[in-house]
Amino acid sequence: MSTSDRNEAHPDLDVMDLERQWERQGLSRRDFVRLLAAGASLTSIAGILAACGGAEATATSPAAPTGTTAAAAAPTATTAPRPTTAATTAAPAATTAAPAATTAAPTAAATTGAAAGLPSGGKYSTLEAVGKKGGRIIEGTFADLKTFNPMLSSDTSSGAVIAMQFNYLVSVSPDNAQIFPDLASEVPTRENGGISQDGLTYTFKLRPNVKWSDGQPFTAKDVVFTYETMQKKELGSPRTSELNERVESVTAQGDSTVVFKLKKVVAPFLTSNMYGIVPQHILGSVPVDQIKSHPFSTGDPKATVGTGPFKFQEYVKADRFTAVKNPTYFRGEPALDQWIYKVVKDQNVLVAQLKTNEVDYGGITEPTFEEMSKQPNLNVQKYDTYSFTYYAYQLDPAKTTLFQDVKVRQALAYGIDREALLRAIRFGIGQVATGTMPVLSWAYAPDQIRTKYNFNTQRANQLLDEAGWVRGADGIRAKDGKRLAFTLWTNAGNRIREQYITVMQAQWKNIGVEATPKTEEWNAYLTRITETKDFEIFLVGFSWGTDPDQTTMWATEAYTGGFNMNKYSNPKVDQLLAQGLSELDQEKRKQIYIEMQNIVNDELPSFIMDFPQALPAIAKRVHNLKPNAINTRWNAHTWWVEDGR
User: Which of 303, 306, 373, 377 has its CA 20 to 30 A from that of 37?
Assistant: First the structure.
């Protein structure tokens, strides 16, 4: 940890080292975290250890974050970025599966002759032959899904269920993020005539003989219906704003060809704007503003039909979703009979059920990593992700004026010891963020980010003083008769985030700020932050795609129909985001995104705190399920269990 605040900590003190010393003294890790939450500095904790005879004179500072780790991250569905719940990873995440396209004419991944045009031969795409057919896999989560509709999904649990039932026009390789055909018979390129020379027209040839799980034929009309419906604001889709900004028209040429005409060149179009296709024959006659409440979206075996490897069997709210194999799946009959998405109370229950074989696959927590790695029935992994933890300030003055002054926003960021949080609560599994780009991104450039929010209470207090917030008799600041007090929300059941907001409350109190932590069941919480926007500050997980475009969170237009949930707006940022999308040269794009990051990082509408690592655990009875950063469910039809049960 480094800080220039001499009153808080010595720059040579390392949180992890102090923890090791603490535990060597036979002291409880829980008490260590409690001390941190109570506002104890690392220096004072070192003093306690010294009194016990356990503190060493100096410690090595943690290594700075780097961007050289392998490109692998949280298990995800191939959907657009959305808030996440850590349902499948300890680094709560639901990410886009978008590859890092840098031109408007990406090339298809090498498939080494794979019959279905699938990736093969790589780390994640080298699969075993199916040894046994039948049986089921139970995947655990503690967050119930919100919708079954790909056009509406904005959370990890919904994304997981959707990815098992629906397909995209093209998808991405789990090995290298290169594009491969899904419902399309080939990836559009300039070479095959699928992308026009000006980069504004994309032509998709569709696979023949694909059927919906109710037996109806899949055609180009389904694709046109899906995209045209998502462009209508009455739907309430988080993708509406971006699609309307990018897509001029979507038309069918017969039953097997779809043509997209773009309003402008969009470098990552094939990666960031591919969504699950829905059936026109089910939803075509439904008024757009009623689709959200239609049985297709809420879950009904007769209405929720897809083209994917599994089909809807049963949904018991807050308990489980059960899917059975789709024998007519166009890539071949799946090996499994069933896939069950099981909702448990919280992460602790999920960890316990992984141990007892009640769950086959799920995310574990950082405190349990070492113990779970020794479980004889599990394979446990750890890798970097595109996912992050962040909190957002309410910037709509109609809801609150507390955070209109950037000095207040910056002061709160300086008031959080993120290194200590990461070490004490996440056991050092992950990296503190510098700027907005994930550590795996080709646009990650921490050395070029001008403002770094290292823990510095002196700077935090100075900024609040300059902003006119004066401490009262109780230590809490006030201005014009209004206290600097607010509610800090996160989702219930996520123990990591619950600890985060508790520690943030304590650390902010040290600078004269009163935060009241509150938690809420996931679906209610998701409604709060994405629909009603009824919050002052919320903390959640999110994930970028492999392409560095961050329009969905920072663009003004993304407040309605996007993930700009706190009403941030800066015309210069909008301009840079637009430039980044239309620039095909990767190095030029990188510089555009660095400039964009610096503006956002200085204005701080939201604060990206850290990039945790993923910690999935998979039962050893399960084969061919290979969690990765980009596209975990691409091969779900090949998953099998060795005992066939």
Answer: 373
Closest CA to 559 of 569, 550, 549: 569
Q: Long-range CB contacts (< 8 A, 24+ apart) of 482-485?
A: 482/402, 483/514, 484/402, 484/408, 484/512, 484/513, 484/514, 485/513, 485/514, 485/515, 485/516
Cβ pair 220, 257 in contact under 8 A: yes
* DSSP 3-state of 531: helix
Residue 174 vs residue 617, higher pLDDT: 617
Question: Parallel, antiparallel, or unpaired: how do β-strands 537-543 and 606-612 relate?
Answer: unpaired
Q: Coil, strand, or helix at residue 628? A: coil
Q: How far is 490 from 141, CA to CA, in rounded Å?
A: 17
CATH of domain 136-364+615-641: 3.40.190.10
Give the helix/strand (H/E) hosting 35. Answer: helix 29-37
Beginning with the edge strand found earlier in the chain, give each strand of the sheet holding 430-432 in spatial order. Answer: 430-432, 606-612, 387-393, 537-543, 485-491, 514-520
Instruction: Measure the CA–CA gap between 80 and 96, rounded to whole angstroms.
Output: 4
Q: From CA 489, how far away is CA 617, in angstroms rounded?
A: 28
SS3 content of the chain, % helix, strand, coil (to 5): 30, 20, 55
- Phi, psi at 471, each rounded to 5°: -70, 135
Contact call for residues 121 and 212 (beta carbons, < 8 A): no
205: three-class secondary structure by DSSP: strand
HEC secondary structure over 543-559: ECCCCCCCHHHHCHHHH
What is the fold, at CATH topology level, of the domain defined by 387-612? Dipeptide-binding Protein; domain 3 (3.10.105)
C-alpha angle 532-536-537 in degrees, rounded to nearest 5:
105
What residue segments make up the domains of the chain, in order of their start? 1-62, 136-364+615-641, 387-612
What b/e sequence results for 544-583 when a residue is b if at least 16 CB atoms lie within 10 Å of its CB, and e otherwise?
bbbbbbbbbbbbbbbbebbbbbbbbebeebbebbbebbeb
Hunting for tokens 């089910």 — which residue is that? Answer: 282
Q: How far apart are CA 144 and CA 346, in angstroms?
A: 11
How far apart are the C-alpha atoms of 123 and 120, rounded to whole Å?
9
pTM: 0.73
